[in-house]
Amino acid sequence: MTRLQVSVLGTLDIQVGTFDRFSFPSAKGKDLFGHLAVNAGSRISREKLAELFWGDATDKRARANLRQALTRLRQAIPDTVRHHLKADTGSVYFDDSGLETDIFDFNRLLEEGTIE
After folding, report:
1. CA 53 – CA 109 distance, rounded (Å)
2. What is the pTM of this model?
3. Nearest to 78, CA basis, from 5, 22, 7
4. Cα(64)–Cα(50) distance, rounded to whole angstroms?
5. From the centroid of its chain, how far is CA 83?
6. Quick one: pLDDT at residue 99?
C-alpha cells in the first residue's frame, strides 16, 4: 500500500510514497481535502461540508459546489490516493488506512505527555 503523508500544521502539504507531491484544482478543494484528512475515518455529512465551505450560498448551490469540488478533487489526486476518498449519498469521508498526518502525531504526543 502506498503511504500517504498529509501535513496540516502550517501549510497543507501532501506527499504520496517517497517523492510524489501533487497540487489541487482550487483553494477550496485543498481545504476540503485537508479537512477530510484531519477527520479521517469519520463520515461527515454532505450537508455539513456544504455549510462549512459554501455557507454563504443557497443550500442547493452549496451542495452543487460540493459535488463539483469532489469531482475535481478526484480528478486531481493520483490514482494511488483516490481510493482513500469515499463518498455516498449522504456523507463523505477519508479512509485512514496508510494515512500519516502531523496532526495525528501531535495529538498522540499530547496524550502521552511527551514534551518533544
Report:
1. 30
2. 0.80
3. 22
4. 9
5. 12
6. 77
